[in-house]
Amino acid sequence: MNDSQAAPEDEVDLMKEIISLCKQRGFIFQSSEIYGGLKSCYDYGPLGAELKRNIMNEWWRAMVHEREDVVGLDASIIMHTDVWKASGHLAGFADPLVDCLVSKERFRADNAPRPEPGAELTLTCADKGQAKAYQKSIQERFGVELKRGGKTLQGLKVIDEETFGFFPDDSGDAAESFPYRGYVSPEIGSPFLSDERQFNLMFRTSLGPVDPVQQLAKAIEGKALSQEEARELIEQKIGENAVYLRPETAQAMFVQFANIQQALSLKVPFGIAQMGKSFRNEITVEHFIFRSCEFEQMEMEYFVEPGTQKEALDFWKDKRLRWYQRYANDPSKFRLRQHEPDELAHYADDCYDIEYEYPWGWGELEGIASRTDYDLKKHSENSGVRLTYFDQEKDNPETGKKGVHYTPYVVEPAAGATRTTLMYLLDAFCYDSPRPDAKGNVKTRRVLKLHPRLAPYKVAVLPLVKRDGMPELAREIVQQFFNSGINAKYDEQHQVGKRYARHDEVGTPYCLTVDGQSLEDGTVTIRDRDTTEQERIKIDEALQVVAGRLAES
Ligand code: GAP
User: Fold this and answer.
1) Ligand 1, closest atom to CA 297?
2) Among 87, 232, 372, 449, which is most exposed with the fewest C-beta within 10 angstroms?
3) pLDDT mean across residues, the chain
């Protein structure tokens, strides 16, 4: 740790600090970094892999192991294409995309800045050279010469909700007017935009030993096709063997509903949980791992009797909120937000987001949706397989006898494991208030106050020096932790003070130091990450002490 580091002063610094710590300490790296990196793809290093796995294990423990009414599933990432037809993902899982006709930036229309009528529309370019080039291109394409001031271009104003104009002087009259879409491009603030078009977020690939390019080449050989005809033919040929990487883990739980319910004789209400990779060709990737193209989800579909979904939604929204707060330093940074009716997905009759106060403001962490019977019914209609539940206890209103088939309703807590990893890094990262060290030097510590259950290493075992039998004894202690399933780290590099600092930065809750006295009286010091206090305990009791503190945490 660099002692001269100052604490971050604002939100931008906090994200920068986290990203830099993640790289320095082996949590998260840019994917393929040596080749210049791949946008929005990340690799979880030794520490990040442990942290993410611990988060996912805690989720699985709370959602599956500790519940009699929930079972697990690990489905394939590639599923039958009809799954995505039935679920609506093929037709509707799309973002509205727009191109800026000046800068060529492609962006999501629904996230773009929306200047109101009367607002000046100043285009802000990267530098003077770019401003000059854009000024020329606007003049050639739209016939108006905007005024250049350094790297900005001025003279445009929003007239009303549907029009913007060019105002060359202060006379108040527009020399030209253009249709206004209600928003401008995020990068330079330009209102000169293409039409919106829908862009499907699923990654498409092909399955089997067929080369789609060759098939395509054969299909178009010798044909004179219009652009539209060529497009249709290409779609048809590619579509023949197309498969998709799943954009959510949820659909497998609907598709395997009957198999699982029957194999385990499950009684409604019951849940099926799954965690794993999902893929979305996101247009806007943002805030490090907050939104990326490849990410991990932790989802559970809870099947209930129709009419009881509100009760189940209330139960799961509160339970999930408490789950996040349990591992957090600051529980006040979480809140529940109910969706407005116009925000609800087509399949939902109610929905809550668990939101976190990120450095850039409140944002989604998890959605808990009441998904009605939409998915089971759609898959049943499309596959021809009955996906209902037979309730033997319930009276059938038609026959007056016991036993009735119905399609269960579903409540779905859908969380992101990668997003949760970022959230707990943000929650844990802090600079301790300056305090004197053993030598009296005042230092500011950079600490990751991760919950012990989430921390990559639970305990570090440090021989004070690399001789006199201390390494051997330290390794014996580490082995005892391994034998008990506790992830311990043997660490002998650098002076012990540096090692403490390193473990503070990666969130190791306890450090055990083996010193000369250890060899004489069988004791070690145990140092607490958060208080930095040390006490001597017997080596024989070290395992019990650490295990006990972990269990209590
Ligand atoms: N089955 C419902 C579903 O997938 P969602 O709100 O689209 O709902 C659930 O996703 C959670 O998955 C989100 O709350 C978020 O935590 C995570 N998530 C979604 N898209 C993501 C992305 N591109 N990058 C990282 N996490 C993402």
Assistant:
1) 12
2) 232
3) 93
CA of residue 204 to ligand 1 center, whole Å: 19
Q: How far is the CA of 416 from the centre of ligand 1 (A)?
A: 6
Spatial distance between the Cα atoms of 321 and 354, rounded to a whole number of angstroms: 7
Specify burial of residue 253 (Cβ count, 10 A radius: 0-12, 13-18, 19+): buried
Please state the separation of Cα 6 from the chain's center in Å: 29
User: Cα–Cα distances in Å, from 29 out to 18, 43, 65, 421?
Assistant: 12, 5, 32, 14
Please give the Cα distance from 400 to 246 (Å, whole number): 43
* CA-closest residue to ligand 1 atom 16: 416
- pLDDT for residue 445: 85
Give, in degrees to the nearest 5, the angle at Cα 203 between 197 and 207.
130
291 Cβ inside 6 Å of ligand 1:
yes
Question: Quick one: which of 314, 276, 308, 278 has its CA closest to 373?
Answer: 308
Distance 295 CA to ligand 1 centre (A): 8
Which helix (H) or strand (E) covers residue 96, if one does? Answer: strand 94-99
Question: Which residues of 267-408 form beta strands (DSSP E)?
Answer: 270-279, 294-304, 334-338, 350-358, 361-372, 389-395, 402-406
Question: Is any ligand 1 atom within 6 A of the Cβ of residue 115?
Answer: no
Percent of the chain that is helix, strand, coil (3-state, to 5)? 35, 30, 35
Q: Answer yes or no: are the C-beta atoms of 289 and 255 closer than 8 Å.
A: no
- Model confidence at 231: pLDDT above 90: no
For ligand 1, whether the C-beta of 301 sits within 6 Å is: no
C-alpha of residue 40 to centroid of ligand 1, in Å? 15
Residue of the nearest CA to atom 10 in ligand 1?
A: 414
Q: Look at residue 214 in the predicted model and tell me its pLDDT.
A: 84
Q: Is 250 in the pocket of ligand 1 (CB under 6 A)?
A: yes
Q: Kindly state the tokens that stand for 527.
A: 């140092």
- DSSP, collapsed to helix, strand or coil, labels residue 345 as coil
Residue 548 phi, psi dihedral angles, 5° rounding: -65, -45
Task: State how far the Cα of 419 lies from the Cα of 100, in Å rounded to an integer.
Answer: 30
Q: What's the CA-to-centroid distance between 437 and ligand 1, angstroms?
A: 44
49 and 29 Cβ atoms separated by less than 8 Å: no
Report which of 457, 456, 369 is spatially closest to residue 413, judged by C-alpha positions: 369
The ligand 1 atom at the shortest distance from the C-alpha of residue 364 is 14
Distance CA 18, CA 16 (A): 5
Q: Residue 432's pLDDT band (boundaries 50, 70, 90)?
A: confident
509 prior amide bond cis, ω within 30 = no
State the average pLDDT over residues 24-37.
96
Q: From the alpha carbon of 416, which atom of ligand 1 is closest? A: 16
Tell me which residue has its CA closest to atom 6 in ligand 1.
Answer: 367
pLDDT at residue number 6: 46
Q: Phi and psi of 19, rounded to 5°?
A: -60, -40
Q: 3-class DSSP state for residue 135?
A: helix
